[in-house]
Amino acid sequence: LDTLQERYNQSDRAHTLQHTHSCDLLEDGSIRGYLQDAYNGRDFIAFDMDMMTFTVADVAAHITKRSWEADRTVAESWKHYLGNTCTEWLRKYLSYGQAMLERKEPPMRRVLGKEIRGILTLHCRAYGFYSRPITISWLKDGEVRGQETKWGSIVPNSNGTYYTWVSTGAHPGEQDKYRCRVEHASLAKQGVFAWVQLILIGHHTVVVPLAILAVIAIIGFIIWKYRSGKAPGCGRKAEPGR
């Protein structure tokens, strides 16, 4: 700092020297390294590892550039650090976080419906999934519902997984036309789910699809009609001799 203050003829206030360097492991296996110094928030000098050259931002930095280029060990030292030491640490950090980076937790789903004042609201919830990106939407007859749909934020759970929801309005009786579609990296293919109503039988809640209820009702009606026809007094008894 004292050297730079002299070059810029400064002595009356505090000054800051900033240093940053980085190394990248590219997909093709090559390495990229970069170094940069700044003085009082302004670029001062930068090092290009591939070209083995220094780039300066102003006249005062030229003195440093000439000095470092005259001493080739400076560039060689930084090239070795960026291409070996830095990348070695980077590989270690990647190995530490590899399990987390590759972690995939499939979303659990729950579809609910509630009718209020003639309007049926369908809710689709996805929770316990990782990683964060997810696409969840409502379909009607296979088409995505846009303007009529409300989406919740994707929020974190205490265990590191995520939760979100989507809802839409529907006319009562049209619920069979609606499906909740969930797309996530953990799923081999997108999931499509319908709302299944809950029916209370005695003290137990049973999940019964509406189509099954309709079939049961028809069968019950047929049995009732059959038994009604066999009841005493319903048929005419033939008279003797006829």
UniProtKB/TrEMBL annotation:
It is a single-pass type I membrane protein. Belongs to the MHC class I family. Residues 113-194 form the Ig-like domain. The chain crosses the membrane at residues 206-226. GO terms for cellular component: external side of plasma membrane; extracellular space; MHC class I protein complex. This is HA1F protein. Its main location: membrane. Signal peptide: none annotated. SMART domains: IGc1. The gene is Ha1f_0. It comes from the Eukaryota. It is found in: Membrane. It holds the Pfam family MHC_I.
